[in-house]
Amino acid sequence: MRSLRLAWLSLVRQPARAVLGILGIAAIGALLFDMLLLSRGLVLSFGELLQRSGFDVRVLASDAPPFTGPRLADASALAGRIARLPEVEAVLQLRVREAEIASFGGGGVAPDGPMDQAVEGVGRRRRVEFIGADPQVRSMWTIVEGEDLPDAAAEAGPLVVNPNLARRFALSPGSEVSLRGRCANSPEALPPVTFTVVGIAEFPFDSVTSTTIAGTLADAGRLCGDAGVDRAEMLLVRSTPRAGAPGAAAAIRALEPLLHVVTNEDLIERFSRVEFSYFRQISTVLATVTVFFGFLLIAVLLTVSVNQRLGEIAALRALGLSRSRVIAGVMWESAMLVGAGGLLALPLGALLSLWLDAILRSMPGLPAALHFFVFEPRAIVLHVALLAVAAVAAAAYPMRIVAVLPIAATLRREVVS
Question: How far is CA 183 from CA 262, 352, 382, in A?
Fold first, then answer.
């Protein structure tokens, strides 16, 4: 208790220096906290996006990135065989097509002529990504207005659109939209196909500028005139709770050894090792530099404080205060500075991470729901541990000064000066 009181009196005797030191440690601690959030933020956020889709296994024709490799042949028969496995709960086919809006109307009334001049002038803004899926299987998107795709085929094909497209063209449930497919296997202009919007949905991997539409598998074929071609880009599989994703993936590999089967955990591990490794390396470097600067700041503050009080410390030693208590006082002083600054760093770092996250998420092509800074308890534990190491290391030199301080020579020098 005497050591703690000695440290407290040393700090309050010069409040300006103590406050500036705490603010400096808080700034450094806030940056360190953000780097710890960044080190695993993308991986955690990406994992949440994968889980949000409701499927934990993906089946592709090759190990190429999704939607860039060959398509799955005889997709319907393949999906049926996989769905009959006891480890599988549901299978969803995905067919992705490029299209453009040829015309649209509101309130279920189709326009009489072509799209108005204002819309015709936007060029690429009319292009959309059409996702064909089986409406009898739980969809990967989330309905925010209207209804999902009906199980029974409608006279005018049903569609769900994302909020970006709904806002851009003032679409709502009941609106009619004419789409024209932009298919690589069809060099000629395809006739437009009329659809009816039944709902507005959020798609997990949409960016802030994405224009996404979802319809049935048959409607995806109608867009490109290949309704008889049974090919899909991907199969999404939901495993049973008992088997889990590893069990379902193993069963699918045994059934179809030539296909590429990956679980959500496999994708997360790959992205963490390859695509997201840059951000992990950057966060590691910046966290190391931040801890080093924190060490320097604390060491300078404590060294200056001790050097200014050498005569006082020698007098206390001469009056009977033990060397261990004086050394403990320096350690407590370091702990107080770092503790106050570290506590202030947490809310400051949280606010700073929101600002930095908004800047990084504005990069084009990133999913709108993807975050770079994601909180986890592990970050606080590491934050406390690193600051504690910096505090102990920074106090080592000032404690050595106190430990080897010659009492008589120091008092004589103070009297002469």
Answer: 28, 45, 51
Could you tell me the maximum CA-CA distance found in the chain, to the nearest angstrom?
104
| Under 8 Å between Cβ of 166 and 158 | no
Question: What does each C-alpha distance from 216 to 21, 114, 319, 345, 401 come to in angstroms?
Answer: 63, 25, 89, 51, 77
What would the DSSP string read from start to end of 74-88?
A: THHHHHHHHHTSTTE
DSSP 3-state of 207: strand
Contact 322/417 with Cβ under 8 angstroms?
Answer: no
The token duo for 288 is 């190391």
* Distance between CA atoms of residues 383 and 282, nearest Å: 17
Tokens of 396: 């080592």
Q: What is the distance between the alpha carbons of residues 167 and 159, in angstroms, rounded to a whole number?
A: 15
How remote is the C-alpha of 278 from its chain's centroid? 14
Q: Residue 23 and residue 2: Cα distance in Å, rounded?
A: 26
Q: pLDDT (tens digit, 9 = 90+) per residue, 158-181?
A: 899 999 888 888 888 888 888 888
What is the rounded distance in angstroms from the CA atom of residue 201 to the CA atom of residue 313?
Answer: 70
Per-residue DSSP letter, 156: S
The residue type found at 264 is N
What is d(CA 149, CA 1) in angstroms, rounded to the nearest whole number? 71
36 exposure class (CB count in 10 Å sphere: 0-12, 13-18, 19+): buried
N- to C-terminal Cα separation, the chain? 33
Distances (CA, A) of 13 to 19, 104, 125, 209: 12, 74, 66, 57
Residues 398 and 330: beta-carbon distance below 8 Å: yes
Residue 161's Cα: distance from chain center in Å?
24
Q: Hey, which bits of 255-296 come out as E strands?
A: 260-263
Global pTM reads 0.74
pLDDT tens digits, one per residue of 193-225: 888 899 999 888 888 888 889 988 888 888 877
Helix axes 15-52, 264-273, angle to 10 degrees: 140
Structure token pair of residue 81: 């065989």
What is the residue type of 352?
L
Q: Say which residues have a Cβ less than 8 Å from residue 49's Cβ, sequence separation at least 6.
A: 204, 205, 367, 369, 370
